[in-house]
Every structure is written in structure tokens, then in C-alpha cells.
Amino acid sequence: MPIYKKLIEMNKAGEVDFSRVHTVNLDEYCGIPGTHDQSYRYFMDTNLFDHINIDKKNTFVASGMGDFEANARELEEKVREGGAARSEEHTSELQSP
Question: pLDDT digit string (tens) for 18-39?
């Protein structure tokens, strides 16, 4: 993931700050938990979130387990709350410290 590697590098160099960023990932596989190495949660954690200064409480990946209809409603709610990066806000939140 070249873009994630670059973001990690920039964060470690103090060029970009993720401390106020909120994310919403729109995909997840049904039937596997976020700890499974094939889940999007696992992918995002191991390839980006674990290496930058983002508060994990501010990251959302839809659940692939349980009541899929309820999970879809929760995802829709997160997007409506503004957790999804909107282009103008995304740019302003990825600012140098």
C-alpha cells in the first residue's frame, strides 16, 4: 500500500497529524470478525491505523458479524454523523502540527 506507507512516513516525520481525523470504511466481509486477517478492520489496523497517531475510537469499519441489517443501519448512521471524510474537511484535518 504505497499511499499508506507514505502517510505513515509523513506522520512519523511530523508532516501530517491524524489526531483529529475520523474515518469510516464502507466495506467489510460478512461472516468474519474484525480480528480475522482477511477482514478490512484487520487490514486497516495493520497497514495504517496501528502506525499513525489516530485515535482508534475515531475509526469505524462496519461489522461483518451479527445482524447485517443492524450493521448496515449503523454504517449509514456513521456516514450521516459526518464520520466519513468529506473532501474539504479531509484536506483541512490532514494538516501539519
Answer: 999 999 988 888 899 999 999 9
